[in-house]
TrEMBL record:
GO biological process, one term: photosynthesis
EC number of the protein: 1.6.5.2
Gene3D superfamilies: 3.40.50.360
Protein name: NAD(P)H dehydrogenase (quinone)
Sequence segments annotated as region (Disordered): 29-49
Residue ranges constituting the NADPH-dependent FMN reductase-like domain according to the UniProt record: 109-252
Length: 301
């Protein structure tokens, strides 16, 4: 019976080394637990069959006792939560992509904030700016404004010998350097805005730009808060392999007093929901960050 199974996310670094050093699976298909060779009692030099038989019995009893003791410690650790806490704490320093741990915390999640309108007074742009301010109050999260105003209308003829227009290349490089995306999506005629769809079309030309990115949406509209556009945007993200969080969902009805003169959201309930959306995006992004060692460890009896 499997006692515990650790996938690529979780058992990393020194915790995995401890598990592999203290509890080693035997090479047979039985999956029996065996102690490391360093813990085994060596056989004595030839001294008669009786002595050898006695040593074999002693060794079997020692290994049986050791297995039970070790499994008991593991079970107690899981029950108390200490083992899980230790593994999670140590896994923070061994994630893919270089240095992650800073003062015991994960490397901050960097989010590309992409507004869906090119109007200078657009609510979508104000929402991205508000997200930048809110993110400063959320540990481990950064939001960067990504401008799409100057992107040309998608046209494959603009790609010359695999080279994109400078403004397109800059946009793609900015998005590629982030861990996830926050889309501020206005609803135009029951659908996604043309500028936002245009930006996604350009970014999807290179699979390294959007591929495996996490994403969240804050949508705006006149009646349903942009809900119809939000679900179309989720569908658009399927082809380039964008992974959207499921909850919470944030739909905001357009009204002129949503933002104060300082740019802050005036409705405290909307600001609270926006903050929860950003926290969920941060957490989801961290969950999808793989361990540096792409292996699975199973402890079985």
């Amino acid at each position: 019976m499997a006692l515990a199974a650790a996938s690529t996310v979780g058992f990393c670094g020194s915790s995995q080394a401890v598990l592999q050093g203290s509890l080693q699976l035997s090479g047979s298909s039985s999956g029996r637990l065996s102690m490391s060779k360093a813990n085994r009692t060596p056989f004595a030099r030839p001294g008669g069959l009786a002595v050898r038989a006695q040593q074999q019995q002693s060794l079997a009893e020692t290994e049986t006792t050791s297995r039970r003791a070790m499994l008991g410690l593991v079970a107690a650790g899981i029950a108390s939560g200490s083992l899980v806490q230790t593994v999670l704490a140590e896994s923070k320093a061994t994630l893919v992509g270089g240095p992650r741990a800073v003062s015991g915390l994960l490397k901050p999640v960097k989010i590309a904030g992409i507004p869906g309108s090119i109007s200078q007074s657009a609510m979508s742009k104000e929402l991205i700016r508000a997200a930048i301010r809110i993110a400063k109050t959320i540990p481990g999260l950064e939001v960067e404004y990504i401008d799409i105003d100057s992107l040309p209308l998608f046209n494959i003829d603009l790609v010359k010998n695999g080279t994109y227009p400078d403004v397109v290349q800059t946009f793609m490089d900015q998005v590629r350097a982030t861990d996830g995306i926050l889309f501020a999506s206005p609803e135009y005629n029951y659908s996604v805005s043309a500028p936002l769809k245009n930006a996604i079309d350009w970014a999807s030309m290179d699979t390294t730009v959007l591929g495996d990115k996490t994403a969240a949406i804050v949508s705006t509209g006149w009646d349903l808060g942009g809900a119809r556009s939000q679900y179309q945007l989720r569908q658009i993200g399927i082809r380039p392999d964008v992974y959207f969080i499921n909850k919470p969902e944030l739909f905001i009805n357009v009204h002129p007093t949503l933002f104060g003169d300082d740019g802050n959201i005036t409705d405290s309930s909307i600001e609270k929901e926006f903050r929860e959306l950003l926290i969920s995006l941060r957490n989801f992004t961290n969950r999808l960050r793989p361990c540096s060692q792409n292996t699975a460890t199973t402890i079985a009896t």
